[in-house]
Specification:
346 residues; alpha/beta; Four Helix Bundle (Hemerythrin (Met), subunit A); Rossmann fold; seven-stranded mixed β-sheet; four-stranded mixed β-sheet; 12 helices; 16 strands; 17% strand; globular
Length: 346
Amino acid sequence: MIAPFTFSQDDTLLFIDQRRLPWEEASFPASTAQEVAQAIKEMVVRGAPAIGIAAAIGLYLGIKHYKKSDPQGFFSLLKESKNLLASTRPTAVNLFWALDRMERVAIQSPLPIEKLKRRLRAEALRIWEEDVSANRKIGALGADLFSSPVRILTHCNAGALATGGYGTALGIIRTLHERGLMKLVLVDETRPLLQGARLTAWELYKEGISHRLITDSMAGYFMAKGLVNAIVVGADRIAANGDTANKIGTYSLAVLAKRHEIPFYVAAPISTLDPSTPSGDAISIEERRKTEVTSLEGLRICPRGTMAFNPAFDITPGELVTAIITEKGVVQPPYPISLSSLWEER
């Protein structure tokens, strides 16, 4: 099974360097919290669940080499490593959820420091295992919504590379393929970093799932032609009212889906739900380097002196989301009520 990284017995987190796919399947090794933070910030690894898992392992790596018996010094180093990892990307809530969970385990475990280190390592791996299990449940619950072969449009990459393995939106597509119900996947290229073209298409090609790559601006054309039965996307943060932060361009798809009466589904584990955020207005949107827009693979594509905007995410209002598919069930509007039943399980 494809996974975004492996973790060895000698505590090396070996990432698939997603910046270099599909041209080269290269690795990026990380054995310190600083190196994991670099991998997250520079998008060696991306996708909210995968970022959360990597951060949890990174937090363990940050305290692994602490040799003193002083608990105060240990927890000071833990906090320092947590702050470093938390500063990497502001939008994906899984990052903060995983770091908070790891810190909570450390605080609530009255163990000698060496045993506490092992406890934190085991907790990070448990977060990873839980995510893979959640993805498979999401895949099954999402696939249950379809009873005949379908054409699905997806945006960005919400597959195995963006999670612990298997995927959220792509997990549904994988399950449909296993059931013989996946007719065709339309893959948005997802400018400016082309995660659809580079990563989603790579995953689908690897698994022999029928797909066609389209530019982001072609999506409305295919909907109008009746060639899209449903849209399935992932999420980086879901607010209490169902507003969803996902890769830039998702909101446009939701508006088009509404116009053409096409179901628009969001697939995400409950770790992506954020009850402390009342609506999308409160979600911090990461603004990335302008050169990602003005250049393509290092080649400038506009006149020198041309400026650009580059928000990495947008907000899809909950009213445009047909259903949110989690490992705990499929919920529908009104989201302030239906999502509240999942909060305590988060």
